[in-house]
Batch of 3 targets.
Target 1
Amino acid sequence: MRLCRLVLAALFAGASSAQQVLIVDKSGGTPGAFNGIGAAVQAAQDGDVVLVKGGNYNGFTVQGKSLVVTAERGANVKVNSQVRVVGLIGEQQVVLRGLTVKRKTIPAAAFVVEFNQGGVWVEDCDFQLEIILPGLPGYERPTVVVESSERVVFRDCTAEGSPGVIPLGLGFIEALPAIDALDSDLVLAGGTYTGGAGYKGDTLLSGPPADGGTGAPAVRLEGGFLLVTGATVTGGAGGDGNPNPCTDGGDGGPALDLVGGATSGWLQGAQIAGGAGGAGVSGCSDGAAGLPWTGSGGSSVFAFGGVAHALAVDSPLREGEASSLTLTGISFSLAVLVVGDQADFVPSLALAGVLLAQPQAVVGAGVLDAGGVLVLPYAPSPMPPGTLTETVFAQPVFADPVGAVIFGAPTALTILDATL
């Protein structure tokens, strides 16, 4: 409990009583709640929290204001069309947590982040594409699109790229990445990201039978910075060849495709693998497995040794609600927490990662056990009178037994008034 008091005392000194909590409940079970996320987002003021109860909802856009949009803890929140975050400036920041976003509209990515100076923090979200009419012109898009955004963090999210197709034998539509980013800085901390699979070889209405298509990269970045820590990133599988007459299988895609001299990637404790090659049936050749990463134009990749380090905590939590903080890393490492009410983005080669929480307090956590785990009981202390909510960014920093100091994967915790 002393840990809670130290952390919250530092944060609530700057907390604003003007922050409100807007509740979204499509079931109608919460008096005064909004029926849709979009309406609540539009009504919210800078710094508010939109708390979403379980249900199916339409997509929404957050533009030019700080906001937290979070599913109620344990709720199944499905968003059935595109979500966008656009136009954040300065210290504005948006947190999305606990959403499953499935794009069904034409044409659109499931999630778009564009033209943001401020931070975009996405945690425990699942981004999906539902291919209703394969091959319809303009339909296929990368699942997640990030453009001209300076501080984008994905923590424990999942995304898979759309597969390639040969629609009605009329031509080729190539597989696409799970994340396609341009001129942006990103962190993938935990989670699973998979490139779209190549199309299956087929007989065309004109021309020779087609080989299987090439799998897409899981993540493509042109211009900018990428840290992958503790995540599983896999290129799309190559498509199988055509059986009769036989054609070759397609090559697997790379896990990462970094383009341009201003593009760099750092890897720390991540599982990075190219996609499997497609099968060449009936005696034709199998496709080649994809590479862990490909680069062009002078892009660079640096791989740190060791394992991934992380902090996990349930969110949102009410005042006094019992929970725990779980830290993982190298056995017998000493851990401290860097805590603040603003996200940050400061890469550090020396600390094998990126500082993602603006430090307002540094709190000792303890030493990891022989299994590399430390679990601390945690319950948020009461907030100051008039404060309904506060969002805390917490990042662990570890000193391992040989003296190396390492940034771990952070988390964003939203604390709510006990009456909500």
Target 2
Amino acid sequence: MPHLLLTAFHYPPEISGGVPRALLFEDFFIRRGWRVTVLTPQERDSGVKGGDILRVPLPGYLAPKKSGGATGGAGAGKSRLKSFAKKYVALPDVFAPWALAAARMALEFARNNPVDLVLTSSPPESAHWIGWRLARACGCKWLVDYRDGWTFEPHREEAKIFGRRVVERWLEKKVLRRCDWITAATRPIAEDLREKIADAGKVKFLATGYDSGVPSARGADNNYFRLMYTGRFSLSHKVRTPAVFVEGMKAALTAEADFARDFRLVLVGDYSAEEKNLWSGAPLSGCVEFMGQRPYAEALSLSAGADMLLLVTPPGLKSIATRKIFDYLKARRPVLALAEGNEAERIVAETGCGVCVSPVDSGAVAAELLRCYRLWKDRKLNAEYACEHNGLYEAEPLFQKIIGPIADSFTPAITGR
């Protein structure tokens, strides 16, 4: 059988936006009869979808921080040194040392376990070094996957420094020219990549989508208009904060007594102290419920039981869709999206799953909250946003269309090997 080496920096038990896409790739190839080996720093004995695990742990200085560390003195000095290295030394990102070690282990592994296809997904962009090394040394095919842009609307602040930007553009072009196929999670990223290479046909738009199945609804409460948000606000993009939504919510609570009585904002996730402070004090504290971080499946069920789901995107970044929007599409609940001129707004309009307002206009947020509340009160909210086109983003057909031909192209060669 053909053999895929799937580089999945983000993989369970980690909880992050990059995990579901890795699982969808693993599941797709497993079900098509491939052997899949997942190369990851995460600690697991076996793959979630049936693959094997090839683990390369993170170096100690890159491991997740533990509480109780030093905050001053020598600790502060080390922090400044790490900050300097992150900005001016580590290329293309701070995880390059892990990628170098992972590439060495992958090459050693491939000597006894021939690899037909290596798939590398970014961020982190350094993961593509693994594909580069294997493709050159072993002659295997290489699929590069972009969940976020690299030099287009970069998610890393240091990537915007002029000197780095020049070098990273050069590195990106090297990767794009050397690989065999490229997939991009949003249309704007795919369009940008097509402009960077001569063979634009090898770039394909592949939305992450959601896996099949409808989550069972939990936590429904007909006594309140429950708007739910799952996950972190600023984990990937520091400019994605709930501040504008908070101001709009305050205005709506002040403007209409019935709304203040019936409205509840339910937050499911791990939030920073700064984010929690935004919800403190009247009139917010009485209508905000913190449910803490929950397992992924439970969070989906809670979303399916909400009256409406909240999506917040940063302004000025047209490639942003967020992984969350596909979870919301799967939950099949109406969506209130703070999104304008980006991929998230396009998906909401395409599916008819909800309504979008400007992420910088708190007055528009207040007006839309009150309008949706009135629809809920009149029992018309579900009819207004029936979510009947959410199935456009079910992952299986999307992956079959784009990845299916790639997988099938290996069958004759493997059969005759």
Target 3
Amino acid sequence: MGKGDKKTKRGKINRGTFGARRPRIKKKPSIENKISIDKKALAM
């Protein structure tokens, strides 16, 4: 249960892999994009 263990978060970080214990972080849409989308909706 450490850096050598494939199934733990620390092991995933050490290997540079992703899985159930270390999911990939999805990028949230920026605030600027949300504002521009709202303005387009109001213009219609």
